[in-house]
Amino acid sequence: MDNFANIPQDQPEELVTEKARDSxxxxxxxxxxxxxxxxxxxxxxxWANHVREDEMFRHNVQFTAKxxxxxxxxxxxxxxxxxxDPAVEAAKALMTSRKPGWVCVGREDTDVKLAKxxxxxxxxxxxxxxxxxxxxxxxxxxxxxxxxxxxVYYDHNAFYGKGRVKFxxxxxxxxxxxxxxxxxxxxxxxxxxxxxxxxxxxxxxxFPAYAxxxxxxxxMNENIYPEPNREAGEGQVFPGDVDDEQSDKRIIIERYxxxxxxxxxxxxxxxxxxxxxxxxxxxxxxxxxxxxxGQTVIRKDNQQELAVLLSQIDPAQLDALQEVTGAELVKxxxxxxxxxxxxxxxxxxxxxxKLIAEEIMNIDEYPIKFAMNKWNRTPYPESDVRxxxxxxxxxxxxxSLLMAHAIRSVNIPLLIPRGxxxxxxxxxxxxxxxxxxxxxxxxxxxxxxxxxxxxAEAFNMVDRxxxxxxxxxxxxxxxxxxxxxxPNTFRGTMAMEEYxxxxxxxxxxDIEDAxxxxxxxxxxxxxxxxxxxxxxxxxxxxxxxxxVRINYMGVDDYSGELRKLNxxxxxxxxxxxxxxxxxxxxxxxQFDYYVQLYNLNAIDQVELLKKTELVDxxxxxxxxxxxxxxxxxxxQQEQEIKRLRGDLQTAERESVHDRKRIEVEKFKTGLKGIExxxxxxxxxxxxxxxxxxxxxxxxxxxxxxxxxxxSKRRKENV
Length: 718
Hints:
- There is one protein chain.
- This protein is an alpha+beta fold.
- Among the domains are: 2-60 and 90-229 and 241-257 and 346-380 and 508-534, no CATH class; 387-476; 630-718.
- The chain has 20 helices and 18 strands.
- The strands form six sheets. Strands 4, 5, 6, 7, 11 and 12 form a six-stranded antiparallel sheet that branches.
- It is elongated and about 220 Å long.
């Protein structure tokens, strides 16, 4: 009854509509009572008896009081061979192996980014609602009580009074659906009621502000839980079995119905927000003061938006900041108004014949979602336990016959002709191993009749019955881990396991449809109640924390305008649940498949590690990234070393060449010195030779001159 937490106890009159105030509010309570008695017809009572009987049968209450007494009189233990509960648990384990995979798809381009935010919000809602327990209880009800019933509600008291949207499972016996409903999800029902029988103290604890009204309500002794004729021989206790005669009882009726309202659809172009307001709410809305600066409009009372806006305005332009009302923005076309007719769900809560609250919810579909098992186009489906119960009764009957046969085989009767022996002596000595009994053969010979052995086919029938029950629930032996009939190959076993899940997937689609409905309603309630700047965090199984911030003021990266970012009140999305996301996967087969994809370079290492059973995948990835970074540094250093080594070799070669060049230059310098000396010597030699030649020439000239003078003197002498 946690869903009653969304009734504000301090101001209960806020949820009562004007219509309820103006009319007689007790009429709605009386309507709920009349509908409860009308919906609790013979068909519904028969269905409830079957549901309670199936529930008790699953919990080992499989014998009637007469059957148990008969077995005990025969000396047999009334021990049922329960094949139903293991089948229910196995099917539940398969269908809830993992949490649902929510997928949100934006209907417009602007909703694509917010769709991922909504996926995280749905996962957050699942976690804070203890979703694994809620869905697990719902799946048990689906298998054993013929339907899953889950409710989305807003808990005003959660998160220190800030409120949170949550899920909760409802007992199908406490749900009353319009008998005329012909849809599997009961969306066509005129009314859906949740009825609980509580004591006055419980009712006051749920609604402390209404204590006088609750005490004044007429007491009710309507037992909503039937009492089948089976006897709980092992101390099982079920809802409704404990009857506190010392306390007054009250019936709490939570009724949901759909009504059509004429509302005004408001679209704020500056914030991309759409609202649906009544005429009275519209009058108050048009009086709201705003601040307008060009095309930027903010509410005057929003200090956060005002601070951001003032930080972006030049002080010289403050005169352009004007105060306007909503009516003036309507004239400018910034706020658009259109009257429309919409369907809304109304929630009426009453205790007995007294009205507690009436609320108009801003959703157009019922917040309670159903997954009906064996549906026959009525709100009274049948469960798998109902279909398999007869087979289990056959097994119990065979077990009783087998016990009788075993007792007869151990306690062998002795037929004695009358007068042939002393009966008292025979009874005392018959069971002794060394017994010696005296008898008179003239009256006949005593003999023991032989018990006919059971045929082997009888035991095969029991195995076949067990397989029939498992087939009914869609869980063959291979799904239990029994490998007697499994193929010898690894891939053959995986293929058999995959084929074995096909029947359970048919049931799982019913659960997934209900989860999709819960997601749709949850998103609508989140849009209605999550209006403040908040940070939502979700812890993944690996320990990684995913977080998102919603409804905060900031500057748009594309337009550069000041606006509310991640504003979930404006998002328009479709909610889906990944098909088979809650089913288990073959770890070895899936990992082998991913290894093949990794070897083909079709996926990266991160995607491969996600499919392992490692606890700290993120830690491994961080360490591997660190190792890769170190390897890259080492490679860079090796490349640098290679480059430096090459440069060193080049430098060494150049050094050798330089040394050779220096030696050559030195040799050349020596040669040049020798050449200079040779040239100098040659020059000196030439100079001396020229001097000697000049001297010789001079001497020759002088000799020639003297000869000529001598010749001349001779001639003159002659």
